[in-house]
Design brief:
With about 900 residues, the protein is an alpha+beta fold. The protein is built from 26 helices and 21 strands. The strands form three sheets. Strands 15-18-16-19-14-13-17 form a seven-stranded mixed beta sheet. It is elongated, with a radius of gyration of 37 Å.
């Protein structure tokens, strides 16, 4: 049949059907006429013609398969029939739709997160060509901070690379932002080189981006702002171009606005080209972390680019073998942005896939039971000439219809699941937009629904199409083959095995949380409020020294300490659990060069250790007599003291280090160690200097309170505003909130795995209960006969329970073996527990045996209470 004819038939289905019927009737009439001519009676001629012609229904279906219009009509008829059959079996349909809905909803929720983070379209031109460069100090792109105009040298080095088109450096941090008289607020700013936006492939939405002349010191007082800041501060008006804004007390002219989608680095509102000049006013304490990005040249492969960078590094290293941290590492920019959350989302994707497999096995078991009950129907249809393909298609359409209905329910479940997942949202997700169920997610859900329907419908459809009609019609509804019963048991065992793996994962994550909570941190997290202030502007400019800094801190601490409910107040340059990068300096004991160690400096106020809960082991704390005119003093942590002066009393000794303790301060106290980066980190060697002897532009205040610390927030803001309203407060959190953020990723994984494990366990329970209940119903006649012949009801009960426990033990054994392999994927997340923890494995086995007992006991009890007379009459 020609293509044009098939297309025409799509709009003339009734006419095509009439033509087929007329053609069949014509063939029959010709055969009848021939038979009558041969001497047959009319009745004999008609019968012989029908026999010779064959099954007209099969002939029509064969014609339908070769014609698009009739195939569509046939499929639509099967779909209507499927809906009618499902409507006539509400219990089966509702159970199946809810089960599929839960599984697809879980998958949709996780995919929504993945779609919003891992799969999101970066707002760059050809983002696959943009790479992040780590360990760049060995490959010729290292910054020369002694140069006042490093950009030209940096670009010259970048131009010498054959595999890259451009390179740029950037640094990101917080700034005090103000515009006209609107007050000051804390924003995220990024210092970049002029080619930053060229490397990313981003053009300004309004105005212009940076140009080469902007990198020359003296010409760099320009800024590009985000679309978010443009609307919030300048109300989206084009007159924003040329306006002057203030960053940390310095003025910048707005030259451009970035597109709404541009958010790199995350949450940046202002970009400035000042990273290479001598000005450090955008950096807290002059310290910053620098990153390098490169754009790969068109036509070059990542392997070629990596090879060139490695060769350069080896050449600069004298062709000697390089350490791991010396080899340049080039990573796609997308991987850099999602590094912190990628493994967690992939873990959750695997977990919800297992839940979907359990749901498929569950519905496949239910469908097998339903197929068994419809054996006579399928056998009769086959006996009347229905082709196997038509029977298979009918079953698959029915299962896909169920899956699509489940997907519609699943969308609602997905919205709820996203709300639940965000209860334990990890801090890493703060850098990504809130996920939403959009068109891409809906397409994914539809595809998953179709594949799910085919997955759980294939086995029942195959079984229904391969029934022997004669055997099935003789056997009756409840006489089901042993192979069908065995298949259902295998599916249930698979459900239990899969759920077992999820439960093990959730159990290990729970053990990890418990272990992390037991780790002594070296500081208090209960009822402690913290907030930061970064002092900028004329009074606080640090040239050689300025009394304004110390005066502000002293004034603020005095007022904060008098607030109702505050037990003590203190300040520190770097608070435990904050997200700042840390600096470590070489420390020399007593000014010598022997026994040198590294330690992190801290600028603090007196009373800090008492406020934060770090014990003072020996010596004294800082006091009001420790000023710039008195002898320089320092307090060290116990681990640093033991390294610098082993088996000695550190009090009275002096230390020397660059920048923080050039005056060889005397050790006046020793304090306990603290885990700066949370319970997973090791204790960090630290030394403490009083803020009255070292000017420092930013500090974090800590307040220990008698009651809930969060209620102090409005009082704190009023105190700071009364001292200097131009200095904004930022990063206000309780220490408990900081600890929660620190552990948020593992808590997120624990909650998600626990939720999915619970869901999988419920599905496994339903599946096991369904199989046992169906088996008992199927064997009612047999059980009644055995009871009538004297079998004890207790033995009947134990026999049914044994059948359930066999499936549970088989599934748990398979799950145990699988978990020994799969739990290795979360080894990096675990703490204080191994992936093969025996206690967790044993508890999971006992739990599933208990689930199996409960799922089996209800139908087993019903089996043991069967009335023999009723059972014998039932057949």
């Amino acid at each position: 049949m020609s293509l044009m004819r098939r297309i025409q038939n799509l709009v003339r289905r009734d006419a095509v059907e009439s033509e087929i019927n007329a053609e069949i009737l014509a063939h029959l009439e010709l055969r009848i006429e021939d038979n009558v001519t041969r001497g047959m009676t009319l009745a004999e001629a008609r019968r012989d013609a029908m026999l010779r012609f064959g099954n007209t229904t099969l002939i029509k279906e064969g014609t339908h398969r070769s014609d698009a219009a009739l195939t569509i009509e046939s499929v639509w008829a099967d779909a209507r029939y499927a809906v009618r059959k499902l409507r006539n079996s509400p219990t089966y349909s509702i159970t199946a739709v809810l089960t599929i809905g839960l599984a697809i909803g879980a998958n949709t929720a996780v995919f929504t997160l993945v779609h919003a983070t891992l799969l999101r379209q970066l707002p760059f031109d050809e983002p696959a060509r943009v790479f992040d460069l780590d360990n760049f100090y060995r490959d010729g792109l290292a910054p020369d901070m002694s140069s006042k105009n490093y950009e030209s040298a940096f670009n010259a080095q970048a131009a010498s690379f054959k595999t890259i088109e451009a390179a740029s450096m950037y640094s990101s941090g917080g700034v005090n932002f103000s515009y006209e008289s609107n007050g000051s607020q804390r924003l995220q700013a990024s210092e970049t080189s002029a080619r930053f936006f060229d490397v990313l492939g981003v053009k300004s939405w309004l105005g212009r981006a940076f140009q080469a002349s902007d990198d020359v010191p003296g010409n760099d007082a320009v800024a590009v702002i985000s679309d978010r800041l443009w609307h919030s501060t300048f109300h989206g008006e084009t007159s924003a171009l040329g306006k002057t804004i203030t960053l940390n007390g310095q003025t910048f002219k707005v030259i451009g606005v970035m597109p709404k989608t541009m958010d790199f680095p995350s949450n940046t509102d202002v970009w400035t080209p000042t990273i290479f000049d001598e000005n450090t006013f955008l950096r807290e304490g002059g310290a910053y972390m620098t990153w390098v990005i490169v754009r790969m040249r068109d036509g070059v492969t990542p392997e070629q680019m990596r090879a060139e960078f490695t060769a350069r590094a080896q050449n600069r290293n004298g062709n000697q073998k390089m350490a791991e941290d010396q080899i340049p590492v080039l990573s796609p920019i997308a991987g850099k942005l999602t590094k912190s959350i990628r493994s967690s989302l992939l873990l959750l994707s695997g977990a919800v896939t297992l839940v979907l497999l359990i749901a498929c096995a569950n519905i496949a078991g239910l469908t097998l039971v339903r197929t068994a009950q419809r054996r006579a129907e399928f056998a009769l249809r086959a006996a009347l000439g229905a082709a196997r393909g038509r029977l298979v298609r009918q079953q698959l359409i029915e299962s896909v219809t169920l899956a699509l209905a489940g997907a519609a329910i699943g969308i609602l479940f997905a919205k709820l699941a996203l709300q639940l997942l965000y209860v334990f949202k990890p801090a890493a997700l703060e850098n990504f937009p809130r996920p939403a169920i959009d068109t891409g997610v809906l397409i994914f859900t539809g595809l998953i629904a179709a594949l799910t329907g085919l997955a759980f419908g294939m086995i029942p459809a195959w079984q229904a199409s391969h029934e022997d009609p004669a055997t099935a019609l003789k056997a009756g509804v409840w006489r089901v083959s042993k192979s069908g019963a065995r298949l259902r048991k295998i599916l249930v065992a698979g459900e239990i095995a899969t759920a077992f793996v999820l439960l093990i994962g959730a159990g290990l994550m729970m053990r990890t949380i418990v272990n992390l909570n037991r780790v002594p941190l070296g500081y208090e997290t209960r009822n402690v409020l913290s907030f930061s202030i970064s002092l900028h502007g004329a009074p606080y400019a640090v040239e050689k020294t300025t009394p304004a800094l110390a005066q502000f801190y002293t004034n603020a601490l005095g007022r904060l300490g008098q607030l109702p409910g505050v037990k003590s107040a203190a300040a520190v340059s770097t608070l435990p659990l904050d997200t700042r990068a840390d600096m470590e300096f070489p420390v020399q004991p007593d000014g010598t060069k022997t026994g040198q160690q590294t330690a992190a400096p801290r600028i603090i106020s007196s009373g800090y250790f008492r406020t934060i809960g770090t014990p003072l082991i020996e010596g004294r704390d800082f006091n009001e007599r420790d000023t710039k005119t008195s002898n320089a003093v320092v307090i060290v942590t116990r681990d640093l003291a033991e390294k610098l002066w082993p088996n000695q009393n550190p009090l009275g000794h002096t230390i020397h280090c660059a920048f923080f303790c050039e005056q060889n301060p005397t050790v006046i106290g020793v304090v306990g160690e603290s885990r700066r980066f949370g319970p997973r980190s090791e204790a960090l060697a630290q030394f403490y200097v009083p803020y009255t002897q070292r000017d420092w532009t930013y500090m974090t205040f800590v307040l220990s309170s008698e009651e809930r610390a969060s209620i102090l927030a409005p009082l704190v803001r009023s105190v700071v505003a009364a001292i200097d309203p131009s200095q904004p407060i930022y990063d206000m959190k309780t220490m408990k909130e900081r600890l929660d953020d620190n552990q948020s990723l593992v808590r997120f994984e624990m909650f998600a795995l626990g939720f999915f494990a619970m869901l999988a366990g419920c599905l496994a329970f339903v599946g096991l209960y369904g199989v046992i209940a169906y088996t008992v119903t199927q064997r009612t006649h047999e059980i009644g006969l055995r009871i009538a012949l004297g079998a004890q009801r207790r033995r009947i009960l134990l026999a049914v329970l044994r059948e359930g426990e066999v499936m549970a033990v088989s599934g748990a054994a398979i799950g145990l073996i699988a978990s020994l392999v799969l739990t290795k994927l979360i080894t990096a997340t675990l703490y204080g527990v191994t992936a093969h923890d025996r206690g967790t494995l044993a508890l999971a086995v006992l739990l599933f045996l208990g689930i199996a007992f409960l799922a089996s006991f209800i139908p087993a009890r019903r089996a043991a209470s069967v009335d023999p007379m009723v059972a014998l009459r039932a057949e």
